[in-house]
Predict the structure.
Amino acid sequence: MSIADNIAEVRKKVEAAARRVGRSVSDIAVMAVTKTQPPERIREACAVGQRLFGENRVQEFAAKAGSLQDLQAEWHMIGHLQTNKAAKAAELFRAVDSLDSLKLAERLDAAARQFGGELDVLLEINVGGEAVKSGVAADSPALEELLLAAPRLEALSLRGLMTVPPFTDDPQDARPYFRKLRELRDRIATRKLPAVAMDQLSMGMSHDFEIAIEEGSTCVRVGTAIFGERRKK
């Protein structure tokens, strides 16, 4: 199947999942994950109306950003971001969906101020407690520290939460983790913290995005289902 066919199939599944739980499909964004994808394949996706894209590595996107600057597209950083790459990320991306420390938040805030813009951010939550994954624990002091720091990080707009649950072959196994993130989002939202919005919930990838939508995801990050299996180096 072509990229256009794949995108149409993903959209069909998004609509079906939304209907199952009485949600409006307009409340759910599909992000095309373009890790390892060359510019020409990204252009194919854009040609059929895909406008939201996610990249995992700053250096990789920096190498191809110049050849894509004419596209009407929005780019988000969704991979783990090292603090020494914060300035470049603030220059290249409209949003960072993987914020996981106050130190990184301060670096992004300083860089965004320098560029005279505002950067949307999501807090990455490690819902599975996996040591190999980035993100802050749901009950950690680091999360509270980030939430309370939001008012002074004036160039950052804290919009919600993101997670990558433990991978299993059965997509249903991800459901408790998605539900945990939604419940955490709801608890934070009820606190009405200054400069903290909780309107976005980024969860769900190619193999489990339908489950994520049923559990309240507002953005699904889809790579393989759109572009096929990644080419191995």
Summary: Residues 3-20 form the longest helix (18 residues). The longest strand covers residues 156-162. The domain at 3-225 is CATH 3.20.20.10 (TIM Barrel).
